[in-house]
Design a protein that fits this description.
The chain is about 40% helix and about 20% strand. By secondary structure, the chain is α+β, with helices and mostly antiparallel strands. Helix 10 crosses helix 12. Strand 12 and strand 13 form a beta hairpin. It folds into 4 domains: about 140 residues, Rossmann fold; about 35 residues; about 110 residues, Topoisomerase I, domain 3 (Distorted Sandwich); about 130 residues, Topoisomerase I, domain 4 (Orthogonal Bundle). The strands form 5 sheets. Strands 8, 9, 10, 11, 14 and 15 form a 6-stranded antiparallel beta sheet that branches. It has a 3-stranded parallel beta sheet with strand order 2-1-7, with helices on both faces. It has a two-stranded antiparallel ribbon with strand order 3-6.
Length: about 425
Amino acid sequence: MGKNLVIVESPAKAKTIERYLGHDYKVTATVGHFRDLPDKTLGVSVENDFKPLYIDKNVKVKKELIALASQADQVYIATDPDREGEAIAWHVAKTLKIDPESSCRVTFNEITKKAVQEAIANPRAIDMNLVDAQQARRILDRLVGYELSPLLCKKIRTGLSAGRVQSVVTRMVLDKDAEIEAFIPEDYWNLSCEVTPGAKKDSFTVKYYGTYEGGEIVKPEGGKVTDKTAADRIYENVKDSDLEAFSVKKGKGSRKPAPPFTTSTMQQEASRRLGFTTRTTTRVAQQLYEGVNIEGQGQTALVTYIRTDSVRISDEAVAASKGLIKEKYGKEFVCPYDRKFKNRNSAQDAHEAIRPSHFDLNPESIKSSLSNEQYKLYKLIWERFLASQMADAVTNTVTIDAKCGDDVFRATGETVVFPGFLAAYGDIKDDKKA
């Protein structure tokens, strides 16, 4: 083998990375957690300051790692760039008797040749704060749920478990159930008319908006008609009458694109637009991140790290996207400034948003190398990211107020004057018509 050993989590990722590093490097995988808490005992010494009692979960992998490390001059631990990955890196270091404070740890947000080589050139120590955070979560799961899970399986249903996450979810379910019980139902009526202006054949819908009093429109309380008598009166007043438009307001508007995907928004959009379950989205996204065998390219990772709650984008990626937008859509579609998206206060910002890793591999050019699911999700990620760096959509807006007696109805509409980002990532209703 080569002089350098690189240890990752996934065998698929190992193939991709080994292609970038060359013959002086051997890349192998831990296949996830090869050292963990035991399955059939608590695995936490409560009397000894809550010390976790780890065991080898995959002896074969452990032996292979030790054998390969014994032949290597340098070992780089390149597990995933999150808490779990940092904990696995620490377990690897303990197993191979590597000092966690030595420069043995490398991380990268995307599996590209440049990113991988830069990471190898700049190793760091293992972050024990992240390791301790992961251990605390595992220990808390055991302390909260280990004694309770068997009771749930026995009394309710086989396979149920309790723990840190499930306990919080149970509380949320109970709180929501209490809200439902306390909810007081309220009847209300939506009133709308289908109108045809003058001799025109095209009709449109106007919705009840309020009453005209003293030269002003007064909206009903809460914006809803909650009295059936009032609803019947409005209906009787309008059903055989014409509506007179008394106010037409025209203006211009603009619409900004959504940020590139985080883990949760990717799952939501894949469900809305593609009909994917969360499990399907996670599985396919992992494949795209670890690498797919692309014809003429070999094993190639297509997207950045898929577990992120940040919408941050690197300057390099912004610059690359603008070149693609200009080439495909024209320079007027490029956002005239560097569009920055603000993270929520709770976002950790450890990684970029989910985006393509290789901007020379558009979805159509590699479609034949992807499964149907991979192509659909990659295309969704590609288009959402590209749209985030495109110009605003420009619209003409119109608001029409019409009345019958004192009852006022309103219609609003917009016409797209310049599509901007909508050219790449349109409204879902437009997608369905296409």
